[in-house]
Amino acid sequence: MTRTSTLKRLLDDLRIPQDGVLQVHASFRGLSEEGWKPETVCGAFTEYMSNGTLLMPAMSWSIVTPRNPVFDVRTTPCQTGILSETFRTQYAEHRSLHPTHSVCGVGRLAAELLSQHSRDGTPCGNYSPYGRISTDGVLGEAFVILIGTGFECCTAIHRPEEAVAPDIYLQPPEKAEDYELVAMNGVISTISLRRHARRVRDFQQYGHILAARNALRITTLGNVGFIAADMRLLMQIVEQRLRSDPYVHFPYRAYVNPVHPSDE
């Protein structure tokens, strides 16, 4: 079996819908130590999702700053690892126009999911792919897969934070930062952005909650874990937790407000 076939079978074993939306978050070190190349992984995932949509983060929040306030969708690199950067430069057909939390994608719904991100004055607002996925069931099934990492890297969790408790998890409006956005055709626009507040967050609690509901799909490749979850279900659970306790992402609050059997 080829390496591409191995990865495609792994995705099939995780029951990832090939005509749905799949967002990938990855720490590639483990796969690299197992001898995998980012091009092989990107190619296999792109082939598997050829009838659907494949997304990867292309964030640049430490690259595009008030001292370097220009985001060029064509050339600004992403800081989310070698897999994401390989996908951005060699496989993606679209990238959302956003200075800190852009997303790259290829496939059936990539353009639709990524085309309006610049309308948001926050990282993960209504017009981000996370906002679109959370509210539009017409887009079909949507999954997130975590490779060699956990829910601390799952950007979708920020979407309910912004919706439910923006004054806790975003910088205040008076600290909004102005950025210049350069689109694929070279057209320049501006955005005033409220960044995420710099807080330590406990996102790992959602792995335990999903596991208690038998809503995690897990497999391994060598010593590397692959964790898959329904993205909409995840965001619904996050929203429910935040509405019950807006501070539940503060690490100590997960113990003050633990998961009860009725939550499972």
Walk me through the topology.
Blueprint: H1 3-13, E1 21-26, H2 29-33, H3 38-48, E2 53-57, E3 70-72, H4 82-90, E4 94-95, E5 103-107, H5 110-114, H6 129-135, E6 142-147, H7 158-164, H8 166-169, E7 177-182, E8 188-193, H9 205-212, E9 217-221, E10 224-230, H10 231-244, H11 253-256
Parallel strand pairs: 1-2, 1-6, 3-7
Antiparallel strand pairs: 2-5, 4-5, 6-10, 7-8, 9-10
Helix pairs in contact: 1-3, 3-4, 7-10
Describe what this molecule looks like in 3D:
The chain is an alpha/beta fold. The chain has one domain (3-263). Helices cover 32% and strands 19% of the residues. The protein is built from eleven helices and ten strands. It has helices spanning 3-13, 29-33, 38-48, 82-90, 110-114, 129-135, 158-164, 166-169, 205-212, 231-244, 253-256; strands at residues 21-26, 53-57, 70-72, 94-95, 103-107, 142-147, 177-182, 188-193, 217-221, 224-230. The strands form two sheets. Strands 4-5-2-1-6-10-9 form a seven-stranded mixed sheet. Strand 9 and strand 10 form a beta hairpin. Helix 7 (158-164) packs parallel to helix 10 (231-244). 45% of the residues are buried. The model has no long low-confidence stretch (mean pLDDT 94).
Brief write-up:
The chain is α/β, with parallel strands linked by helices and 264 residues long. Helix content is 32%, strand content 19%.
Query: Whole-number average pLDDT?
Result: 94
Q: Main β-sheet: number of strands, strand sense, barrel status?
A: 7 strands, mixed
Number of helices: 11
Strands ordered across the widest β-sheet:
4-5-2-1-6-10-9
**Portion in helices:** 25-40%
The general outline is globular
Radius of gyration, in Å, reads 18 Å
% residues in beta strands: 15-25%
Poorly predicted runs are none
Give the number of domains.
1
N-to-C series of helices and strands = HEHHEEHEEHHEHHEEHEEHH
What is the CA-CA span between the terminal residues?
A: 39 Å
Write down how many β-strands occur, each being a DSSP E stretch of 2 or more residues: 10
Structural class from helices and strands?
alpha/beta
